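Quick one, tokens below. Sequence please?
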């Protein structure tokens, strides 16, 4: 039996992101896969971690290279709340003509964020890595 569900979930999600992603990409399902992984990670990290890197400003973390300038002064835990609410309420829009090129994530605080699949994946891996490092 797993000792710690949250740690196990983060490890398994990261493994899925690293091993199953190419298969979902071949089938054109990568955005759905990434959003599902991201939602699980966001919920665990948001509910179980408020210290460490999660209390820092985005500009002080690896996320600074993944997010636009208007997110830089936001704390990581505030960004997680933005993501959690947007995904949970499906305030997401596909961008692209025939295929999904990116997704636009909207928040209730007049914020929008457009992300390509590579950035979604990097954000999910960042959350997993930081949670695992924080709980060593």
């Amino acid at each position: 039996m797993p000792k710690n569900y949250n740690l196990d979930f983060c490890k398994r999600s990261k493994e899925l992101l690293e091993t199953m992603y190419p298969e979902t990409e071949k089938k054109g399902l990568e955005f759905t896969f990434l959003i599902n992984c991201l939602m699980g990670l966001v919920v665990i990290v948001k509910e179980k971690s408020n210290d460490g890197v999660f209390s820092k400003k985005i500009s002080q973390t690896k996320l600074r290279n993944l997010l636009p300038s208007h997110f830089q002064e936001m704390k990581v835990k505030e960004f997680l709340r933005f993501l959690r609410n947007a995904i949970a309420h499906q305030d997401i829009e596909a961008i692209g003509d025939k295929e999904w090129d990116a997704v636009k994530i909207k928040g209730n605080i007049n914020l929008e964020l457009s992300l390509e699949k590579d950035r979604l994946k990097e954000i999910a891996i960042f959350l997993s890595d930081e949670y695992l490092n924080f709980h060593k």
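The beta strands are 92-95, 102-106, 112-115. Residues 5-134 form one domain.
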